[in-house]
Write a structure and sequence with these properties.
Helix content: 40-55%
Distance between the termini: 45 Å
Structural class: mainly alpha
Number of strands: 0
Strand content: under 5%
Order of helices and strands: HHHHH
Largest sheet: none
Length: 106
Amino acid sequence: MLRLIFTIRNEDWYRAQSAKIDFLYSDLEIELSVAEAELIFSNLESRMLIKKYVDFQEAWIYLNEGIPLLEFTHAITQGDSLRNRLKNQVAELYKEENNNVVITYT
């Protein structure tokens, strides 16, 4: 079985709409179920790619149900959330652009 996911970034979606580009589309809600998340965790664990969590239950409790697939896989393989990673990248860029002034988030 071949499974494909096609996606578009919000910026591209809005740009296409404002440019009046006509194309066929349908919205598809994608949810990560507990069973799918556990299977992903197990497969990554067998390849020794899990960075932070002792087992699936710990990861699922910490990350909370309803987490998007990309966020889940990033968190379990990198040991941190995408949100934190992006905040740190923005802070670094700001620091570089503003003569080493540090910004912090609360």
